[in-house]
Write a structure and sequence with these properties.
By secondary structure, this protein is mainly α. It has a single domain, classed as Farnesyl Diphosphate Synthase (Orthogonal Bundle), CATH 1.10.600. The protein has 12 helices and no strands.
Length: 305
């Protein structure tokens, strides 16, 4: 096991606020926040009547639950990060001692308390979310050791769970089958997005026994699987939107998918070099399709009301 090396300039006993924020990785909060917003929009009705409630849910999904999951992941990945990314906040020593674990536990508790004020649906979903956050990174489950199950757990937690939670909270009941289908398809597609993140850490993953898809299938095979999962899930979205009579929304999602496929051609030529590039472009197009689908579901809900 790789020992954590702490530079002399980072030997304080308590972390600075900036180090804590860095540990929570604000850039990663966007997917669950976006998915929660999609869920709130998709059920129909006037958002002006519940905007504060929706904002509270978005805050819970992003900075709190997702931020906490990042702290959990970085703590249990600190030895892998010492190889792949030694400048990260824990292996660099800017988060000294056990503070990474303390922050992870604190964020879990705070998230559950906050969720309890937003109703039983939100609290139940938060319990599921924090369970998967710990199961993904921490022993004994440590689902991330296998890229098939780990990436699926994250995709469903980041996209499907927040979407369904927001819809259920707005309705005070289980969401419609249409909502469940769209949220589920986008959560499955996010498996491919998670695989994109694995290309930057292949060396450390091999040394530490983390069996991501690039480790299991090789760079080319993992890239093909990532693209196939993203494409097939969105084709499913296009198909059901057409089936429900939402042809305009379906065509918009299809157009966004065509652009993604064009970008995938470059990504597949050199996945390690272009994974970050594709993430910046392809993921933006992917989540634009999510919001388009949410407005389609909203139109459908208002037609049926």
């Amino acid at each position: 096991m790789v020992e954590q090396t702490v530079p002399k300039q980072f030997t304080s006993q308590t972390p600075k606020l900036g180090a804590i924020v860095e540990l929570l990785k604000p850039i990663t909060w966007f997917p669950p926040m976006w998915a929660y917003a999609c869920g709130a929009i998709s059920v129909g009705g006037a958002l002006s009547d519940r905007w504060l409630y929706v904002l509270a849910g978005i805050f819970l999904a992003g900075p709190m639950v997702c931020g906490g999951s990042q702290a959990i992941n970085d703590w249990f990945d600190r030895h892998v990060d010492a190889i792949n990314e030694p400048d990260r906040v824990i292996p660099s020593g800017r988060m000294p001692g056990q503070w990474g674990l303390y922050v992870a536990i604190a964020m879990t508790i705070i998230s559950l308390i906050f969720a309890s004020f937003l109703g039983v649906w939100v609290l139940g979903a938060t319990v599921i979310g924090v369970f998967f956050a710990w199961a993904y990174s921490a022993p004994p489950l440590r689902m991330k050791l296998n890229g098939w199950w780990g990436n699926l757990a994250v995709g469903l937690s980041y996209e499907t769970l927040p979407w369904i939670t927001a819809a259920a909270a707005a309705l005070g009941a289980a969401p419609s089958g249409q909502t469940m289908a769209i949220a589920g398809l986008y959560g499955i597609g996010a498996h491919g997005i998670m695989t994109l993140n694995d290309f930057k850490a292949i060396k450390g993953d091999v040394e530490m026994g983390v069996r991501t898809l690039p480790v299991q299938l090789g760079v080319g095979g993992a890239a093909m699987v990532a693209c196939a999962v993203m494409v097939l899930s969105q084709l499913g979205v296009v198909a059901v939107l057409f089936w429900w009579g939402l042809s305009t929304h379906a065509m918009i999602v299809a157009s966004l998918l065509v652009i993604q496929c064009i970008c995938m051609i470059r990504f597949l030529r050199d996945p390690e070099q272009f994974a970050i590039w594709y993430s910046a472009i392809g993921v933006g197009l992917y989540v634009s399709g999510m919001m388009t689908s949410a407005f389609g579901l909203r139109a459908l809900a208002m037609m049926n009301s």
